[in-house]
Amino acid sequence: MMKNILLLEDDENLNRGISLKLSKEGYHVFSTYSISEAQSIFNKENIDLVISDITLPDGNGFDQQPKGSSQ
């Protein structure tokens, strides 16, 4: 079964590169560029792993752990 990864990275080139590499490794990647966008996808999809940048345009990646996840 393909695992779902939520990628939260605001740098477009880095987001695209990471997403491409993970996809080639067999993962389904949901690429997002902001915390609000990531939260929306996290609430709708069955996410197995979140990979997050720390410094984001709408907050801090550490402080904005998706609701419903465990630390």
Describe this structure in words.
The chain has 71 residues and is of the alpha/beta class. It contains two helices and five strands. Strands 2-1-3 form a three-stranded parallel β-sheet, with helices on both faces. Helix 1 links the parallel strand 1 and strand 2. It starts with a strand and ends in an 11-residue tail after the last strand.
DSSP summary: helix tally: 2
- Percent of residues in beta strands? 25-35%
Largest sheet: 3 strands, parallel
Give the helix level as a range of percent: 25-40%
Low-confidence stretches: none
Overall mean pLDDT: 88
Count of individual beta strands: 5
From the N-terminal CA to the C-terminal CA, the straight-line distance is: 24 Å
Strands side by side in the biggest sheet: 2-1-3
Note the run of SSEs as H and E: EHEHEEE
Question: What is the radius of gyration computed over CA atoms, rounded to a whole number of angstroms?
Answer: 11 Å
Structural class: alpha/beta
**General form:** globular
